[in-house]
Amino acid sequence: MYNPFSLKDKTIFITGASSGIGRAVAIECSKLGADVIISGRNPERLQETFDALEGHNNKQFLAELQNHEDVNSLIDQIPLLDGIVFCAGYTKTLPFQFINEDELNAIMRINFIAPTLIAQSLLKKKKIKNGASIVFISSISGMYISFYGNSMYSASKGAINGMVKGMALDLANKNIRVNTVTPGMIQSNIINTGIITEEQINADIKKYPLKRYGNPNEVAYAVIYLLSDATTWITGSNLLIDGGYTLT
Amino acid sequence: MEIKDFINHFADQFDETDKSEFNPETEFKTLDEWSSLIALSVIAMVDEEYSVKLKGEDIRNSNTISDLYNVIASK
After folding, report:
1. Residues of B in contact with A200 (CB under 8 A)
2. Does residue B21 lie in a domain region?
3. Bridge partners, A86 (sequence order)
4. Is A146 part of the contact surface with chain B (CB cutoff 8 Å)?
5. Is position B34 within any domain?
6. B55 domain residue, yes or no
7. Nearest CA in chain A to B60
8. pLDDT tens-digit profile of A12-24?
9. Which of A149, A180, A177 is nearest to A162 (CA)?
10. Which CATH class is domain A11-241?
11. What domain range is B32 assigned to?
């Protein structure tokens, strides 16, 4: 069947696959024919994702991405890749007056430095094929707008968007494409930390012209587009998926 | 933890409201300056000063400063 978005015969590595966007990306990639390698921190939830994958050549690695030993062992065991999707990340809501060095270091390390260094190590170890596609999950927060109490998260995502442009240039001679997707708020665990009340969430949802938050699958389809051979001439770009939020 | 100190810390999150407006019976959500950002600041202040992790619901369910103080004291 004709399908320019097929991921058949591609091997895709996905971080942060134990929940939310990462889980959806892993499952949808497997449904489009990819062999999927997933990493995450929570063994039970990672197993749940793994059990939901289609196909028989998938692998899972339990890994803390800021732990050098975990990362080195993962990189050594990983096969040659056609695609990488960096989904691992978190947010910490603190008004700017309350941010501190420890929190700032932690969020930059997990959201920005860890994926950056993993991509660099994989390249150095020749684990990324020429012609591969690398996708970072960024956010509208940092790239276009921010939210109250979200300056550190915005900084970490803004850093990704800046780096991706330079990375795309430096890897163009290998025909490796590097892009981000920048979602608006997605229904997933990242927002259920309790600091924001149900009422505030409902008020926020009203600001979206399409009148709802996104769901993880809707981000996954955008990622798949960027991983597929349909986008072999797209590099250094950001794909905005926000239900119209940044229009208003 | 003294309620007097708590009220001082609470009042510090505001810029325009006069300090004299704050007492244990102040219904803080009726203050003109009250906003979701100040709510976030109160949560962050309570974590920093008292090592107590408030939830948005705790603020929603409190009317007066003393209500909120009691929630913190009970955690």
Report:
1. 36, 56
2. no
3. A136
4. no
5. yes
6. yes
7. A197
8. 999 999 999 999 9
9. A180
10. alpha beta
11. 3-9+27-73
The owner of tokens 């913190």 is B72
Using a CB-CB cut-off of 8 Å, the residues of chain B touching A148 are 36-37, 40
What is the residue-averaged pLDDT of chain B? 94
Q: pLDDT (tens digit, 0 to 9) for every residue of chain B, 75 residues total? A: 789 999 999 999 999 999 999 999 999 999 999 998 999 999 999 999 999 999 988 999 999 999 999 999 998
Whether B40 sits inside 8 A of A195 (CB atoms) is yes
DSSP A15: S
Could you give the number of structural domains in chain B?
A: 1
CA distances from A187 to A204, A218, B33 (A): 12, 11, 30
A3/A122 Cα distance (integer angstroms): 29
CA A48 to mean position of chain CA atoms = 19
Q: Which of B15, B43, B46 is best to mutate for the A interface (most A CBs within 10 A)?
A: B43
- The tokens of A219 are what? 């981000």
Burial class of residue A156, CB neighbours in 10 A (0-12, 13-18, 19+): buried
